[in-house]
Amino acid sequence: MSPLDGPLSMTVIFVMPRVRAEIWKTKPMPRLPHAKKPDIDNLQKSLFDALTGIVWNDDAQICGLVCYKWIAAGDEEPRVVLTVEQML
To answer: Where do the domains of the chain lie?
Structure first.
């Protein structure tokens, strides 16, 4: 598959690992906002650089972006969830 052309929009969800101090055996462990480092803009920049030439030709093609940073729920694995859509 070749990189996408034209204007793109994307939604990114960074699910960060839960630290050991926040892992409990009996209490619920819901997904929580991640308000610590790394900064969301640095995560986003790294992701854009990594996907250039694979998903799109140039990250300047991104015209819309929604980005979230969460701490994983107790039953979740850390990951990045990415949705890219062509705008035209």
So the answer is: 12-86
C-beta separation of 22 from 31 below 8 A: no
Q: What's the pLDDT tens digit per position in 31-40?
A: 999 999 999 9
3-state helix, strand, coil in the chain (%, to 5): 20, 35, 45
- Residue from 69, 68, 48 nearest 3 by CA: 48
For the CA atoms of 59, 64, 18, 54, the dihedral, rounded to the nearest 10 degrees, stands at -30
Segment (H or E) for 68 = strand 62-71
* 83's tokens: 């949705």
Q: Are strands 8-16 and 32-33 parallel, antiparallel or unpaired?
A: unpaired
What does the alpha-carbon distance between residue 79 and residue 8 come to, in Å, rounded to a whole number? 22
